[in-house]
Design a protein that fits this description.
The chain is an alpha+beta fold and 145 residues long. The protein has 4 helices and 7 strands. It has one domain: Alpha-D-Glucose-1,6-Bisphosphate, Chain A, domain 4 (2-Layer Sandwich), CATH 3.30.530.20. A 7-stranded antiparallel beta sheet has the order 1-7-6-5-4-3-2. This is Ligand-binding SRPBCC domain-containing protein.
Length: 145
Amino acid sequence: MKITLRTKVSASLSAVWQGFDESLFEKLSPPFPPVKLARFDGSNEGDVVSLELNFIFFRQKWVSHIVEQRETEQEIYFIDKGVKLPFFLSFWRHKHRLIRDPSGGTIIADEIEYRTPFLLLDYLMYPVMWAQFAYRGPIYKKIFS
């Protein structure tokens, strides 16, 4: 399944890129499940991000590697790929794109591709996944305005 969400902010491309740090990551975590950030190396190729999701009665570990990061005059992006995922996911790839908006500011695009162990579950998880990332839009706007 694929999900793409875009948020326009008024900050410059370089300012948004500088703001993609551990503090932002913690602010973007949705209220449920609570997320404990175990490791955050950054957003450059070779970096690792490790999380612990707390589902009240059990916890799940999520580890992603930053497998690619590129920067041009018009866009900066990095891709995290899940290497240890919660039981309900079998594949995870998230491309974080920061795109210079010709009319000013930056467009932050979250391009997510995921799979679960079962095709039906892919579709059932879609609204949950969409909501988890739609939650980020107002936070991006508040931080980068």
